[in-house]
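Per your request, structure below.
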């Protein structure tokens, strides 16, 4: 197997601009878990499928590896702090956020650009991650723009659009 410098590989992957999501689920006892993820991809319209790739290093990995449902929250422009909380904060992440606490559902955050509630369709082992594929049971989108991420930095589609308007209309 080819061995690359993982840091260099991660940096090369990171030139691909993405959005930012927080993937959530509930442990068997109902405890909410979640992590920031930019590995989100839409997969199929019929049936409606999406995927995200949880790393085996996640403290919540045992939950995601066995969950029967999960939610993908697509963060909106301005939700950088929420993204950082679910990427780095070691305490009670959900106490830092506004979210809908329905004991039957994975957490959905307020103010997101879109969210997708999924049942687990397939889990495919993939090296140090797994591919978690979900079938969309319900979704909602708002008028908010999604938050962007590239080269380890957030970017705002709002400012990109403003720059475009400036370029076209001066
Ligand atoms: C923008 C961004 C995207 C990320 N994408 C992923 C991802 O797709 N899969 C993953 O396993 N970790 C991803 N991470 C890292 C996890 O969010 C981070 O390791 C995790 O929240 C740590 O949680 P833990 O302390 O509960 O283990 C990403 C981090 C950031 C900042």
């Amino acid at each position: 197997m080819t061995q690359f410098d993982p840091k260099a590989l991660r940096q090369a992957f990171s030139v691909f601009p993405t959005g930012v999501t927080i993937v959530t689920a509930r442990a068997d006892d109902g405890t909410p878990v979640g992590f920031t993820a930019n590995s989100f991809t839409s997969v199929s319209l019929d049936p409606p499928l999406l995927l995200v790739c949880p790393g085996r290093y996640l403290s919540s990995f045992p939950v995601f590896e066995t969950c029967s449902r999960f939610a993908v929250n697509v963060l909106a422009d301005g939700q950088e702090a929420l993204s950082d909380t679910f990427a780095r904060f070691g305490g009670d992440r959900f106490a830092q956020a506004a979210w809908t606490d329905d004991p039957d559902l994975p957490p959905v955050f307020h103010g997101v650009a879109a969210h997708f509630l999924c049942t687990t369709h397939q889990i495919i082992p993939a090296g140090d991650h797994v591919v978690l594929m979900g079938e969309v049971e319900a979704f909602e989108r708002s008028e908010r723009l999604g938050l962007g991420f590239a080269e380890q930095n957030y970017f705002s589609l709002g400012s990109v659009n403003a720059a475009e308007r400036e370029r076209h209309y001066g």
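Residues 20, 35-39, 53-55, 58-60, 86-87, 149 surround flavin mononucleotide (CB under 6 Å).

Regards,
D.
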